Amino acid sequence: MYNIDLVYLWCDGKDKSFLDRKKQYIVGHKCNGESNGRERFFDNDELKYSLRSVEKYADWIHHIYIVTDRQRPKWFNTNCKKVTIIDHSTILPKKLIPCFNSTVIERYIANIPGLSEHFIYGNDDTFFGSKISPDYFFTDQGKPIVRVKKFNNFPYKLTSLNIKDAYSKMRFWGKSVIKSWEMLMNYWKITQVTPYELHHNFDAYLKSEYKEVMNDYETIFQQSQERFRSEKDINRILFSVHAVYKGSAVMKIIANTTKKMKIKSFLFGHKVESLYVDKKIKSLIVLTLIHPDLYCINDLAESNKWDNIIERKILTRNFPLKSIAEK
Question: Domain spanning 4-318 has what CATH number?
Answer without folding.
Answer: 3.90.550.10
